[in-house]
Design brief:
This protein is mainly alpha-helical. The protein is built from 8 helices and no strands. The chain has helices spanning 2-19, 24-35, 49-67, 75-82, 87-103, 108-114, 117-120, 123-132. The radius of gyration is 17 Å and the shape is elongated. The mean pLDDT is 85.
Length: 133
């Protein structure tokens, strides 16, 4: 999680340096391309709220950097205006996608694993269920 957060910050700085004078449409397209899909987000099991909050702040700061918007304003409101997914929406969609692919798999081995008690008590599956509820 720390490595991915650092990569996100590096990417945001690179995009700001190269595309700072680009139009709002270009910034929106770049942000969707680089930040709407966080690598393996469905598998992230957050041990404490502290790490989840750090990742959320990282995404918000990347938004500020790419769109060059600083100061006091609601980042979540800006996400909604531009039709972007907030951190919680990203986690929910990634978890839902992974969970449904696992549970609805036609693979016999995956189905056997899904039907055992260990699967339901797995920390990743418990985290997915918590996010989805």
């Amino acid at each position: 999680m720390e490595r991915r957060s650092r990569d996100m910050r590096v990417t945001a700085n690179m995009l700001h340096a190269r595309f700072s004078k680009a139009s709002e449409y270009v910034h929106l397209h770049l942000f969707r391309t680089f930040f709407n899909q966080v690598y393996c987000l469905g598998l992230w099991v957050v041990g404490t709220k502290k790490y989840e909050q750090k990742a959320k702040v990282t995404l918000n700061n990347c938004f500020r950097r790419v769109f060059n918007k600083w100061g006091i304003f609601s980042v979540s409101h800006e996400f909604v205006i531009r039709g972007l997914q907030t951190w919680n929406e990203l986690r929910r969609s990634a978890s839902y996608s992974l969970y449904t692919r696992i549970v609805q798999s036609d693979n016999e081995i995956v189905s056997a694993i899904c039907n055992c008690a260990t699967f339901t008590n797995n920390p990743i599956i418990c985290e997915m269920r918590r996010i989805l509820m």
